[in-house]
Amino acid sequence: MSRAGGGWNRGRMLAAGEAGQEPAAPCCPEGGDRVKNAEEKSDMSIAALVGSDQLTQDGDDDELLLSVSAFIEKEVGSDLKSLKKLGKLIEKMTEDKIKLEEQVLTISSEIPKRIQSALKDAEESKQVLNQFLEQEAPLFSSITSHLLTAQPWMDDLGAMITQIEEIEQHLTYLKWVSQIEELSDNIQQYLMTNNVPEAASILVTMTELDIKLQESSCTHLLSFVRATVKFWHKILKDKLTSDFEEILAQLHWPFITHTQSQAVGINWPAGAPEIYGTLETLFCQLLKLQASDELLTEQKQLPEKYSLPECPSVILPIQIMLTPLQKRFKYHFRGSRQTNVISKPEWYLAQVLMWIGSHAHFLDEKIQPILDKAGCAVNARLEFSRGLVMLILEKLASDIPCLLYDDNLFCHLVDEVLLFERELHSVHGYPSTFASCMHILSEETCFQRWLTVERKFALQKMDSMLSSEAVWVSQYKDITDVDEMKVPDCAEVFMTLLLVITDRYKNLPTAPRKLQFLELQKDLVDDFRIRLTQVMKEETRAPLDFRYCAILNAVNYISTVLADWADNVFFLQLQQAALEVFAENNALSKLQLGQLASMESSVFDDMINLLERLKLDMLTRQVDHVFREVKDAAKLYKKERWLSLPSQCEQAVMSLSSSACPLLLTLRDRLLQLEQQLCFSLFRVFWQMLVEKLDMYIYQEIILANHFNEGGAAQLQFDMTRNLFPLFSHYCKRPENYFKHVKEACIILNLNIGSALLLKDVLQSASEHLSATAALNEVGIYKLAQQDVEILLNLRTNWPNTGK
After folding, report:
1. Measured between alpha carbons, how far is 436 from 349 in angstroms, rounded to an integer?
2. DSSP character for 796?
3. Which residues contact 184 (CB under 8 A, 6 or more apart)?
4. pTM value?
5. What are phi and psi of 708, to 5 degrees?
6. Residues contacting residue 35 through CB under 8 Å, at least 6 positions apart
7. Which of 183, 267, 546, 567 has the most CB within a 10 Å radius?
8. Composition of the chain by helix, strand, coil, percent to 5
9. Per-residue pLDDT reduced to its tens digit, 295-322
10. Helix axes 444-466, 407-426, angle to 10 degrees
11. What is the DSSP secondary-structure string of 137-188?
């Protein structure tokens, strides 16, 4: 009824909308039959109309019909009472239609007016444009005529401007010359009145002008300025240097011994405050000459092959303070004096360290405050040290080529230089960013020779070390707390050798040089591993002997130490440097680069993997050897008559099977022996590997190979739980958890008859794996599979006779 009513409503509304007429008001109930007939006819006619429209209209009309139907459905719905709304709804729709028609008429009447207005505006624009075009022709002609008339004037004016610019340049040139001459005259006047500080200040101004003119193309002007600066700089420098050296002499500079430097601090010379005041004045005046000194003096540089870092020259007053020490150094260590011995580099290295130490207090207490007061960001002691270190670098650069191919002399030189560097950095705080001896040792020829010598002496050390029997004994064997890893002396010495090499190269200035030394260390580790493998192969017939165990402990120790080193900050930095080098050279796959970058791998991974493989191989040999001995000792136990042993109730006290004694004694002796000879971590791996094999052997070769009566099953359980398992209780809390097969097999064999029958029934009737697993778990079976349990149940002979 509701659907019919809804259809009638939609049809009626649609017909009314299309015809533009108001539908009749709903009839009263008394005329229901006639109304119903009229409704049916109306529905049929409307449906016919709509059908014919759908045949002729396109998709948009279909959407319109759907939207109209939806609108009527929303407003009227399926309730007949709501048909009362149709009248008002049609009135509203009619009003809306009239409004829309009025809007359409209004718009259609306005459009022609707008078009006419636009056409009018276009016509006016066209007229204005034509006027402009008419004015353009005479104007263009007038401009052209004017330009032709003015061209001679322009040419004359251009020539005059060029002359003016040239005159201005000349005037500027003369102004510069005049300014320089004026400054020069001022310096002369100040010097004549002995006003050196003002003369130095004027020289600073002149030096600034020289620097400003560097980009000028006036070569003669540049030469004039430079010559003037040089002239006055030399005069002022000579005068101030002479006065400064005189003051230093009154202070007994330089302090050749440490005692002398202390004496200056304790016993000041007469008139000390006045002397130090003059010292400060002269020092500050010399500082003013620093800019001109750098401009005029070409800094002495070592060849580029040494790749020294760029540093400004030592400040002028410190240079003057260094002069007497430089003379002494050259006199003793660069000439034909007996102190200049190429085989004694420690002489000049120690001398420089002594000079730095003996002058440090004076520089910190007297010179540094002057620099701070003058606003000079220089550390007096480091500046002084830098000047002395340059003497060392020049000396090394000249001496190294002479002893490059004498291994002993070269090695001695490197050792002394490294000791010097260590004290220079640690004691005197010399920064790693300054030029140092490591830059000289990093020069290609010298560095390759250094690598060769390091390799040679390391290999010699390894040869001599492994030729002695004592190297397999730990030097801490009598100290239990220290000797936890039972490290043989050879492994300890070898890792100390690697550590010393690390200390020697860790202060190298560049990462590529450090990486080359790292490769040397890895080569030495590999070489030592090969040597240990060779010695091990000689001992394979007796893998439980002391030497074999010592080799295994050595391999384990080296692997452990390398793994610790991999987390060291120094080696992590090398790993990052290696990552950058490999990425540049495409030397590794993306996976390997990713592992290095994410720290999943380390620089020692290849070595550690090889050592771990060797360790596992040696442990496996030991386990196999002990296992063979245990199997030989278990032959009688395998043949035990498990089928005919008396039950537990027939025995007063359960005791160990006599046939199991050789097995347990062999096992006990070997465990004690290897516990004493192997370090804790290795022994733990050993006994766990052995237990795994022993568990499977007893399960497969003894249990599955026999049938058990009640007494046999009880005896087996007693042998295992009260004798075999306790052998390992010293090494773990629950040893039975390592004998899962044996433990669970004993549980199955010793189940009471009722539980065994019930379990057998459940396993045979279980349709799902889960129910069988639950049943097994209930009796304590977690490792064995269902089929294994069924086999074990069938090994029992004490089943009741059911007549089946």
Report:
1. 12
2. B
3. 206, 228, 232
4. 0.73
5. -130, 125
6. 26, 27
7. 183
8. 75, 0, 20
9. 888 877 888 888 889 888 999 999 999 9
10. 100
11. HHHHHHHHHHHHHHHHHHHHHHHHHHHHHHHHHHHHHHHHHHHHHHHHHHHH
